[in-house]
Write a structure and sequence with these properties.
Length: 436
C-alpha cells in the first residue's frame, strides 16, 4: 500500500483544480467553501482516478466532502442510472445524526444535478425511508442495523452498488457493528470501489480495512496538527461537587455563545441541562435515551442559535456537524483518550478557531496528563476562577489504567480515598441504564 501524508501532494489551492464540474463548483461557492481542506486535496484526485482509499481523518477535517464530491462528480459525469431500491453508492456510518448530516451535505453539493440520495437509520418508523428508496436514489446513506433490516425484508438490494464508503470505522467497531459490517460486505458485489475512513487506526481497524480495500492509497491528516492546534485549550481544577457552579459561572461570559458540553453519563446530561435552565441559561440535552425526533429538535435548536448550550454524551453527539460552536466544555473527561480530540474538534471546524475548556477533578487529572502526552501539547491550567481546587492541584498523577479503575469505582459510588470525593457530589450513584 502506498502511504501518503497530505503535505506530499501538489499544492492544489482551488476546487477547480480538482477536476470538479462547474455545477458542483457553483454549489461549493454558494456554501462558502473557498479552498479545499488537506484531506480533500489528497482524496479527491485519488477517488477520481478510481483508487481505493484508506483515509485517516476525523470529523472537522472536511472528510465528508472529500468522499462525497468525487462520488457525485462520477455519477453525474458518467450519467449513472439507478433503479428503485437499488442504490449505486452506499455510505455506511455509525449514527443517525451523522447519516442525516452526510445526506444533507450530499443534497447541498448535488443541488443543481440530477443526483439523488436517501438516508435510512433506526429508531423511527421505516415507511418514509422505504418510500424514499422506491424513488431510486443514486446514493444511500445508512446506519448498519436499519440497512440489514430493510434488506432482510427485501425492501432494498445492494447488488448494484459500485462505490462503498465506510465512514468512522473506529466508532463502528466501538459501537459493536463489526458483525453487521461483515454481513453487509457479503451483500455487496465483490468488484467495487471502496473508501474507508477512520479517525484512528488500531490493529482491528487495520485488519478490517485490509479485508475491504484493494491496493489502497493511504491518506492521513494528523488530527493533532490540523485541528487541535487551532483550538485554545485550557483546564480548570475543580471539585466534582462544584462543577455545575463553575459551569454556570463560565456561562456568565457572553463570549461563550454556542457551547457544547460533554458528559459521560446520560442522566448527568439531563441533570446538567436542568441546572443550567434553572440558572436562566437556555440548554438542551442529547443522549441515547432520547427519541430520535427529540435529539434532532435539540440539535437544530442549538444549530440555529435558539438554544445556547447543548449537553451531550459522546455517542449521541457523534458526527454532529454544527458550524460556529465557540466553546467545547468537557464537564467530565472521558477515559477513552481519543474522545478528547474528537470532542474538541467540534469547535474550530474547517479552519476556524475555537476554545476548549476541561473541568478536571480527582482522577481526571491523570487523564489530562495522558491527553497531553498523546497530543504532545501542554494544556494550560486556568486558576483564575472562584472554584479552583487545591486538592485537585496537589493530587497524584496515576497511570491511565489505574486512574480508569479508580474513577470507575468512584462513578459507581465507591470510595477511593480521593480527596475530591469526600464531599456530597453533584453526581448521583449510577442507576441501571445510566450508561452512555
Ligand atoms: P466534516 O469533517 O466532513 O465533518 O466537515 C466539517 C465542516 O467543514 C462541515 O461543516 C463542512 O460543511 C465544512 N467544510 C468542509 N469542507 C470545507 C471547505 N473546503 N471549506 C469550508 N468549509 C468546509
Amino acid at each position: 500500500m502506498t502511504s501518503r501524508f497530505v503535505f506530499e501532494y501538489f499544492p492544489v489551492s482551488t476546487f477547480a483544480e480538482l477536476s470538479l464540474s462547474p455545477t458542483i463548483l457553483k454549489s461549493l461557492q454558494d456554501l462558502g467553501y473557498v479552498t479545499p481542506t488537506p484531506i480533500q486535496k489528497a482524496t479527491i484526485p485519488l477517488v477520481n482516478a478510481g483508487r481505493d482509499v484508506l483515509g485517516i481523518a476525523q470529523t472537522g477535517t472536511g472528510k465528508t466532502a472529500a468522499f462525497c464530491l468525487p462520488i457525485i462528480e462520477k455519477l453525474s459525469r458518467e450519467k449513472i442510472q439507478s433503479t428503485p431500491s437499488h442504490p449505486r453508492v452506499l455510505i455506511l456510518t455509525p449514527t443517525r445524526e451523522l447519516a442525516i448530516q452526510i445526506d444533507e451535505n450530499i443534497q447541498q453539493y448535488a443541488k443543481n444535478l440530477r443526483i439523488t440520495s436517501a438516508v435510512i437509520f433506526g429508531g423511527v418508523s421505516q415507511g418514509r425511508q422505504v418510500t424514499a428508496l422506491k424513488k431510486a436514489p443514486h446514493i444511500l446513506v445508512a446506519t448498519p442495523g436499519r440497512l440489514l433490516d430493510l434488506n432482510n425484508q427485501k425492501l432494498l438490494s445492494l447488488r448494484k452498488v459500485d462505490v462503498f464508503v465506510l465512514d468512522e470505522a473506529d466508532r463502528m467497531l466501538d459501537m459493536g457493528f463489526l458483525n453487521d459490517i461483515r454481513k453487509i460486505l457479503g451483500l455487496l458485489p465483490s468488484k467495487r470501489h471502496n473508501l474507508f475512513f477512520s479517525a484512528t487506526m488500531p490493529k482491528d481497524i487495520q485488519e478490517l480495512a485490509n479485508s475491504i480495500l484493494v491496493n489502497p492509497e493511504k491518506v492521513e491528516v494528523t488530527p493533532q496538527s490540523t485541528t487541535v492546534k487551532m483550538i485554545q485549550q485550557s483546564a480548570m481544577y475543580v471539585e466534582k461537587a462544584d462543577k455545575i457552579k463553575l459551569l454556570v459561572h463560565l456561562l456568565q461570559d457572553p463570549a461563550l455563545k454556542k457551547v457544547l458540553v460533554f458528559v459521560e453519563m446520560k442522566y448527568l446530561a439531563n441533570r446538567v441541562c436542568e441546572a443550567l435552565i434553572k440558572a436562566g441559561i437556555s440548554a438542551q440535552a442529547i443522549h441515547g435515551n432520547k427519541s430520535q425526533p427529540a435529539r434532532q429538535r435539540a440539535i437544530s435548536e442549538f444549530a440555529s442559535g435558539q438554544v445556547r448550550v447543548l449537553v451531550a454524551t459522546d455517542i449521541a453527539s457523534r458526527g454532529i456537524d454544527i458550524d460556529g460552536i465557540t466553546h467545547v466544555i468537557n464537564y467530565e473527561l472521558s477515559n477513552i483518550l481519543e474522545s478528547y480530540v474528537h470532542r474538541i474538534g467540534r469547535t474550530a471546524r474547517a479552519g476556524t478557531s475555537g476554545v476548549a475548556i476541561s473541568l478536571v477533578s480527582g482522577m481526571e487529572k491523570s487523564y489530562l496528563a495522558a491527553i497531553e502526552k498523546t497530543t504532545g501539547q501542554k494544556i494550560k491550567i486556568e486558576e483564575d476562577h472562584p472554584f479552583h481546587s487545591q486538592d485537585v492541584e496537589s493530587a497524584r498523577i496515576l497511570s491511565v489504567g489505574k486512574a480508569k479503575a479508580a474513577l470507575e469505582a468512584q462513578r459507581k459510588g465507591g470510595r477511593t480515598g480521593a480527596t475530591s470525593d469526600r464531599r456530597r457530589t453533584f453526581q448521583r450513584k449510577r442507576k441501571p441504564g445510566n450508561s452512555r
